[in-house]
Amino acid sequence: MHTVTPAPTRSDAALLEQIRYQGAYATVEQAERVTAAVLDALGQQIVGDERVELARQLPPQAARHFSQALPGQRPLTAHAFVKALAEATHAPYTITRWHVGSVLGALARTVDKELLHRVLAQLPSGYALLFGQADLTVGARRLPVDQVVRAA
Questions:
Q1: 118 touches 129 (CB < 8 A)
Q2: CA–CA separation, 60 vs 90, rounded Å?
């Protein structure tokens, strides 16, 4: 069991402003709609202690959006996550990918880094990029052990 980190002092307004700026949205209301959709979808992907702790570290409104969706049987791939959200919101895939990156990038800067790493470890490869992080596991998973070069 992991230690639960107390909720940050960050407000919903500060998070939304960061998302509005990052996503180049014209209004905070537009950023709010995008954030709600992305967090609702993300809430279906994360389970266990990470789900509880992530909700605790989010500002109240964001935590409600994240927590209201029941987790699925298993998380979608990163591509399928964006595609499903695009279909649910009737938006093009590329625009939805932009929205997801704007919201999850801000989320990555809001929550504890150790928690972020645990969340990413729970999700299929590809999500790190959605959170604005390097996906260092992709190459490691595909490289045969006999081809690994050891540092001298």
A1: no
A2: 27
Amino acid at 65: H
Task: Provide the residue range defining the domain that includes 31.
Answer: 12-147
pTM: 0.83
Q: How many CB atoms lie within 10 A of CB 34?
A: 24
Number of domains within the chain: 1
- Rounded CA separation 44/70 (Å): 5
The C-alpha angle 44, 141, 136, rounded to 5 degrees, equals: 75
**DSSP code at position 62:** H
DSSP label at residue 24 = T
Q: What DSSP string describes 137-150?
A: HHHHHHS-GGGPPP
Q: Is 4 part of any domain?
A: no
pLDDT in tens, 115-136: 999 999 999 989 999 999 988 6
Residue 70 belongs to domain with CATH number: 1.10.490.110
